[in-house]
Specification:
Blueprint lengths: L1 H114 L6 H28 L7 E3 L1 H11 L6 E6 L7 E3 L1 H17 L5 E10 L2 E7 L7 H4 L17 H11 L3 E6 L5 E8 L2
Parallel strand pairs: 2-4
Antiparallel strand pairs: 1-3, 4-5, 5-7, 6-7
Amino acid sequence: ALHGIEVERRRQAVEAELATLNEELEQKVEDRSKKVEDARAEAEKRVEELSRSQTAMLYMVEDLNRQSAELKNAQDRLVRSERLAALGELAGVVAHELRNPLAIIKSAAYFLNERMAGVSDEKILRHVQIIDAEIDVADKIIGDVLSFASVKEPNIMSVSIVDAIKRTLERIVVPNNIEVVIEVSMDAPTVMADEGQLIQLLSNLFTNAIQAMPEGGTLTINSMKEGEGVGINIVDSGQGVPEADIDKLFEPLFSTKTKGTGLGLALCKQVIDKHKGKLNIFNNDGAGVTCSIMLAAQ
């Protein structure tokens, strides 16, 4: 009996010791689990902070890139403005100086024509006519230069698009092989613009479109209300413009034409800028080019 009691006592002691060890082990497991959980939470926190930092850095880089682009655009505009001012001043002086000798040559050519009335030498007569015609070409170039050099502040008023288009077409020569299609209703919205400058602008763009179709084609003019503005599109069916030249078209002295002065579109851009409007040129999907004007509606 004593032996059984002793065995029972030892069993209970062992069980108590095992229970104690089990509790200690569970506590250690719980402590270790808590440490692991804390470490995981800390790691997640740092990963989240790193992710936020990376996102913030990406935003900073994007903002810096945007500011850099804006600064470059502002610098480009400033350089272009200063270049145009200097070029305009020089062009104005040169043009005025050239007009005087041209006027004298014009008078001399007129005198020769008068004196040679009835002369049968066709070669001499032809060369005198060439002199007279080339003087007109030179005078037109000088006129373009002077216009480019002295674009005045626009006298803004309400202008009928229909009337402006009609008056412009009356001023230019449209070859017989060019069909003009006007897609503007009589009740088209009016624009706020300087009428004279608008007609000059349209005249340059119509002429460019016609010259882009030496073999003939269609000149389409349409207009529509767009938000707070009015759009005017001049569409030709010519060969288009090389994509590499599109961005250069408004630069002074750049021309895709062999006899162009490179001032027509630069003048158009100046006029549009004075009106706080927009002027874009792009190739059509099929053929030809579209010149898109945007001006303020009345």
